[in-house]
Design brief:
17 helices; single chain; Rossmann fold; globular; 12 strands; 413 residues
């Protein structure tokens, strides 16, 4: 994932691994969060490669990393996934890994598994997800990633009654069970608790119900190779380009899409650029397409700015779960177009409205989008409070000190 270590400030006292560290029980554990760059700083003129590495190759990662760091009040320092066992052992008492859809054939974390095991530290994984075509399929893992998951589970110093792996949902937990890694807690994505106030569902509903139809629309853009969603995106883009209430086309991944959002056309492979053109506005000339990118295509590098722009829109819709979830957290309506088990599981466990891409066959109009969303604010808030309660218990059981606002969400007041 990320290569180099970043330490906010030097730790001036040595530390031996494990529970016998000699630290007073009243002292909070020092946490190593495995995420290289917690703040990209003044990124407006940053080199693309620095930004791309800083977001872990997907802007959506910022949502759950920002969330997890806001949820924990322990002393926190940030390290890369490639940090050595000695570095982790000398600077922390416990490791927290902000997770995404790592469980799939697209990853191989054998080297990381070795480092984590050598550190001897307890490990907490938050938001771990499995990626397959659908719930009907089992995941396929490389030996390295399987070993990585086994090392995390084996590091749990407490009993099986207190899991140290918080998954995106029941599907991921069931997949881990099949692999012999039992006892994980199905929960959802920690970005569910990015907005720090209770009653979020009522606030979303108040704005949404006041609209006869959504005017300004943001599209959470997919990938230029996703042919099965291309006609959907064409229609959404047409709705987004309203002359009176214009929206935006926000991208998260892959690198070519992000480069296009920053106007770096010369650095994009010619075939990939042609595919992006085809995926978005194929009826435009090539020069018109580039002008369209400059006018409408966006990518964001800090969560507050991203949420602030989504709050100015009536609806965010698209295939990117986190792009939609951030709109929900900004108290605006969102609809995820689900394309696989990963996006569906996230929506089901966080109450984000969704529609399967295969079901979006009718012409998409504002009226149609309004009718697709059945949002019960009370059910959403009740579900969020229950989820926050489980998440709180998970953090406390793993000796992580939760932020006070999580208790307010759990209490619903």
């Amino acid at each position: 994932m990320l290569e180099d270590i970043v330490i906010d400030t030097p730790v001036d006292r040595p530390h031996s691994s494990g529970q016998g560290s000699g630290r007073a029980s009243s002292q909070p554990l020092r946490v190593a969060v495995l995420w290289k760059t917690p703040n990209l700083g003044l990124y407006s003129n940053a080199a693309f490669d620095d930004l791309y590495n800083g977001i872990g190759h997907n802007n959506g990662n910022l949502a759950f990393v920002h969330s997890i760091c806001s949820h924990i009040t322990n002393p926190v320092k940030h390290f890369s996934w490639g940090s050595s066992a000695e570095t982790l052992r000398n600077n922390a008492d416990i490791i927290v890994i902000p997770c995404a859809n790592q469980l799939g054939r697209h990853t191989d974390y054998g080297q990381m598994a070795e480092n984590l095991e050598k550190s001897g530290l307890p490990i907490v994984a938050i938001g771990l997800g499995a990626q397959a075509n659908s719930y009907d399929h089992d995941i396929e893992l490389s030996p390295g990633t399987l070993r990585w998951a086994q090392v995390i589970a084996a590091s749990n110093p407490s009993s099986a009654a207190s899991p140290n792996i918080y998954t995106r949902g029941a599907y991921t937990t069931a997949q881990l069970d099949k692999l012999g890694i039992t006892g994980s807690l199905p929960g959802g994505c920690p970005s569910h608790f990015l907005n720090q106030a209770p009653g979020l569902g009522r606030k979303i509903h108040a704005h949404w119900s006041a609209l006869d139809l959504p005017r300004s629309i943001t599209v959470a853009g997919g990938h230029q190779a996703w042919g099965k969603t291309r006609e959907i995106e064409h229609q959404l883009i047409a709705l987004m380009m309203d002359p009176i209430a214009p929206g935006q086309y926000i991208v998260q991944s892959m690198g070519e899409m992000i480069k296009a959002s920053r106007g770096l056309f010369d650095g994009i492979d010619a075939h990939a650029l042609k595919e992006i053109h085809r995926h978005t506005v194929p009826h435009y000339s090539f020069e018109e397409f580039k002008a369209w990118c400059r006018n409408y295509m966006r990518s964001y590098y800090d969560v507050p700015a991203w949420m602030d722009t989504l709050r100015q829109q009536d609806l965010t819709i698209g295939c990117r779960y986190h792009g939609v979830a951030l709109a929900i957290q900004a108290e605006r309506m969102g609809l995820t177009v689900t394309i696989d088990s990963r996006t569906r599981e996230l929506c089901e466990n966080t109450g984000v409205p969704y529609a399967d891409a295969a079901d979006l066959t009718a012409p998409l109009t504002r009226n149609r989008l309004k009718s697709l969303i059945a949002f019960d604010p009370d059910a959403y808030d009740h579900h969020r409070a229950e989820s926050a309660t489980r998440y709180l218990d998970f953090l406390v059981a793993n000796r992580l000190q939760p932020a006070p606002f999580l208790k307010s969400i759990a209490a619903g007041k």
